[in-house]
Each structure stands twice: as structure tokens, then as C-alpha cells.
Automatic annotation (TrEMBL):
<dbReference type="InterPro" id="IPR026875">
    <property type="entry name" value="PHydrolase_assoc_dom"/>
</dbReference>
<feature type="domain" description="HD">
    <location>
        <begin position="80"/>
        <end position="215"/>
    </location>
</feature>
<dbReference type="InterPro" id="IPR006674">
    <property type="entry name" value="HD_domain"/>
</dbReference>
<dbReference type="InterPro" id="IPR006261">
    <property type="entry name" value="dGTPase"/>
</dbReference>
<feature type="compositionally biased region" description="Pro residues">
    <location>
        <begin position="1"/>
        <end position="15"/>
    </location>
</feature>
<dbReference type="InterPro" id="IPR003607">
    <property type="entry name" value="HD/PDEase_dom"/>
</dbReference>
<dbReference type="InterPro" id="IPR023023">
    <property type="entry name" value="dNTPase_2"/>
</dbReference>
<dbReference type="Pfam" id="PF01966">
    <property type="entry name" value="HD"/>
</dbReference>
<dbReference type="InterPro" id="IPR006675">
    <property type="entry name" value="HDIG_dom"/>
</dbReference>
<protein>
    <recommendedName>
        <fullName>Deoxyguanosinetriphosphate triphosphohydrolase-like protein</fullName>
    </recommendedName>
</protein>
<comment type="similarity">
    <text>Belongs to the dGTPase family. Type 2 subfamily.</text>
</comment>
<feature type="region of interest" description="Disordered">
    <location>
        <begin position="1"/>
        <end position="49"/>
    </location>
</feature>
<keyword id="KW-0378">Hydrolase</keyword>
<dbReference type="GO" id="GO:0008832">
    <property type="term" value="F:dGTPase activity"/>
</dbReference>
<feature type="compositionally biased region" description="Basic and acidic residues">
    <location>
        <begin position="34"/>
        <end position="49"/>
    </location>
</feature>
<dbReference type="GO" id="GO:0006203">
    <property type="term" value="P:dGTP catabolic process"/>
</dbReference>
<dbReference type="Pfam" id="PF13286">
    <property type="entry name" value="HD_assoc"/>
</dbReference>
Length: 399
């Protein structure tokens, strides 16, 4: 007697897409842009958003904004630009397998770090400490500000005039916002983004892709920077399994290739886990639209509990062995001082700002001046911030 036919699996084999899911964001039903624009463009709304993001000055400057190591420590290490490209690749892969809109996921992945200041988290901590009397500094809010105000490329409006769906995902890809930062609250009054709900599944995919890329490229960079060995990282279950698989598959593999093969396997395993766990959650929720995803009590995109635990173990390892390594500590302290001193000098003396910035700075020491100086510094690359610091502090260097 022949076997009964099997029900189709909700998770397609690697590389094979599902048909568009009912809960994917529909490009034909976008909520539009703050400033209406003429139609007729053959690209989807999210493809247009992606293209606008790629052509910004903020996106180009990511090439010289670092993740952990300052730009001059080596050409091999990741920058914010290479990180964003890696996040976009992972986000597209996950979105494709879940039947989501790949273009929206990609646009969000490419835009998510536009608001990062120079020197990575050290620069963010420095600006946050200086901006505390004025509402603080948050790179997610700054990313929204970049695409809605600071990029001045179009005659008809400030910013990029991205779609509602891209702005919503950029603002709350990490979850609902109960206490918005000053700029997000200000923008939401102008163009409501439904801050207390979840973002689309595509935005949630971009957020998980960021976690996957971040941990794995820091493992790669950490080994190559010799702040820890691959064998030390392989004491962790997730890394160890991939490491042993790579060695078993290639007995005479070289050291560099072993690192790459291990990291590649870890990424694949994490992507597979996200696809399977998300498919399980969607089967339970049974959403019929993208709005059902937004209204869900919990995120629908995520790791399984075992993978979340393994991912947390990797984070803790990286925190202790890399982010708090003495070399990184030294670089962070120097970088924070540079960013803090730049802010203090320019906030107290906006007459030292370039002409186009000085004209909008307001009174020295004022809140308006603080916000403008913060925007000025946040847009700097590592290299430009160091050069500006030298110009403002070294009498032997002309301004």
C-alpha cells in the first residue's frame, strides 16, 4: 500500500522561496510618503527607498565608521558599511525563505546604521553623555533623523521622503517604543508611525539579521585581530559544533579557511533556526495580514530558546574577550575623549563650525546649538573626527 502523501513543509529548502505570504508587506498597498510624489516608476516603493538610501552621503560615510576597531588599525576589519551589506544579505535570505518582501527587508538592513556616530559604541556613549541635558543620543533615533531631515538631496523636501513602511521599520525594528526619544516623538507627531505596536515581519527580520551578522563578524575579526583564538571560541556549543564539522569535512584545511568555514556554518545554522522558529510562531498566530503581525503580542521573528541561549553565550564571550580587551579599552577611552571634547568645544564655540553649520547653530551653549553640534559630530567618520580634533586642539595645524 503506498504511503499517504505528506503535507508540504512550511519551511522551504535553503535557497527556495515561498510564494508571497499574506502577512508580508504588500508593495501595492503602501501607506505612501509624507510628501506625495508622481507615480510611474517601474520600481516597487521599497526598491526606490533602497536606492535612495544607497545614494546618500550618510551611507557612503559608513565606509570609514568602525564597529570595534578604529579605522586605522587595519584594512581587513569590518566597517559599518561592510556590516550593513552583510546584514542586508542575511535579511534577504531569511525574508526570501519566509515569503516576505525581500526589498523592504534589504532597505531596512542598509539603513539601520546610518545614525551611528564615529568610533562605534564609544562615540555613541560620548554623545549620549554630552546630550543628556537635552534628551540624550540614540543611534536608532539618529538614523530616522538622517533619512527624514539631515540628508538634503531633494528640492521639494528634507530627507529622503521614504515610505511609511520603511520609516516605521527603521524606528521600531527592535520592538514597540513606549518612551520615544525626543526626535522620534517629534517626527511621530508630524507623521504617526504607530510606535506602540510591533513593526512588520520584514523589519523584525532585519533586526535579527543584524544580530547574526554582528556576532559572527566580531568572531571573525576577533580571531584575526588575535584578541582570542578560534579554539577558545570553540569552547562554546554553537561555535564548537561548527568548528568540529569544518575540521571533519576538511582534514588538511588551513588556519584562515578554518575560521571562514566555521563562521559560515554558524551563520547558516542561525539563519535556519530563525526560519524554523518564525514559521512555528506564524503557524500558531495564523496572521492574515501585515497588520496582524504588528498587532501580535510578541515578535513573530526570533530565535528558538536553545539558539537564543547559545547566541547569548557568544555575546558574553565577545564582551569579556573582545569588547573589554585592553587594546579595545584603550581605543574606546581615547575615542570617547575625542568625541566629548569635540562636542564641548563646538557647543561652547559654534563660531568654529563650518559656515553652513554655523548659520544654523543658534546661541553658544543653547539646546538648539547642542542638537546641531550633535548632528555634526554624529555624521563624522572616524578619520574626520580625529582630523577635526587635531585642527581644534593642535596650534601647529591650521584650522
Amino acid at each position: 500500500m503506498p504511503d499517504a502523501p505528506r503535507a508540504p513543509s512550511p519551511v522551504p529548502p535553503l535557497g527556495r522561496p515561498l510564494a508571497r505570504a499574506p502577512w508580508a508587506v504588500d508593495p501595492t498597498a503602501s501607506r505612501g510618503r509624507l510628501h506625495p510624489e508622481p507615480g510611474g516608476d517601474p520600481r516597487s516603493p521599497w526598491q526606490r527607498d533602497r536606492d535612495r538610501i544607497i545614494h546618500t552621503g550618510a551611507f557612503r560615510r559608513l565606509q570609514y565608521k568602525t564597529q570595534v576597531f578604529v579605522f586605522h588599525e587595519g584594512d581587513y576589519f569590518r566597517t559599518r558599511l561592510t556590516h550593513s551589506i552583510e546584514v542586508a544579505q542575511i535579511a534577504r535570505a531569511i525574508a526570501r525563505r519566509l515569503g516576505l518582501d525581500e526589498d523592504l527587508a534589504e532597505a531596512l538592513a542598509l539603513a539601520h546604521d546610518l545614525g551611528h556616530p564615529p568610533f562605534g559604541h564609544a562615540g555613541e556613549e560620548a554623545l549620549d553623555s554630552q546630550m543628556r541635558p537635552y534628551g540624550g543620543f540614540d543611534h536608532n533615533a539618529q538614523s530616522l533623523k538622517v533619512v527624514t531631515q539631515l540628508e538634503a538631496r531633494y528640492a521639494a523636501f528634507d530627507g529622503l521622503n521614504l515610505t511609511w513602511e520603511t520609516l516605521e521599520g527603521l524606528a521600531k525594528h527592535n520592538g514597540p517604543i513606549r518612551r520615544p526619544s525626543p526626535y522620534i516623538a517629534e517626527y511621530d507627531r508630524l507623521h504617526p508611525l504607530e510606535l506602540t505596536s510591533h513593526a512588520s515581519a520584514e523589519a523584525q527580520v532585519a533586526a535579527l539579521a543584524d544580530d547574526i551578522a554582528y556576532n559572527n563578524h566580531d568572531l571573525d575579526d576577533g580571531v584575526r585581530a588575535r584578541v582570542f583564538t578560534l579554539e577558545e571560541a570553540a569552547t562554546l556549543p554553537l561555535i564548537g559544533d561548527a568548528y568540529e564539522e569544518a575540521r571533519a569535512a576538511h582534514a588538511d584545511i588551513t588556519r584562515d579557511r578554518l575560521v571562514t568555514e566555521t563562521v559560515r556554518r554558524v551563520i547558516n545554522r542561525m539563519v535556519q533556526d530563525v526560519v524554523e522558529e518564525t514559521s512555528r510562531r506564524i503557524a500558531v498566530l495564523a496572521p492574515r495580514s501585515a497588520d496582524d503581525i504588528r498587532a501580535a503580542p510578541e515578535p513573530v521573528v526570533g530565535f528558538s530558546a536553545p539558539m537564543q541561549a547559545m547566541n547569548q553565550a557568544v555575546r558574553e564571550f565577545l564582551f569579556g574577550r573582545m569588547y573589554r580587551h585592553w587594546r579595545v579599552n584603550r581605543a574606546m577611552q581615547k575615542s570617547k575623549r575625542v568625541a566629548q571634547l569635540l562636542f564641548q568645544l563646538l557647543h561652547g564655540g559654534p563660531q568654529m563650525l563650518p559656515d553652513d553649520w554655523r548659520a544654523r547653530a543658534g546661541e553658544p551653549g543653547s539646546p538648539e546649538c547642542a542638537r546641531l553640534v550633535c548632528d555634526y559630530i554624529a555624521g563624522m567618520t572616524d578619520r574626520y573626527a580625529l582630523e577635526e580634533h587635531r585642527r581644534l586642539t593642535d596650534p601647529n595645524i591650521p584650522g
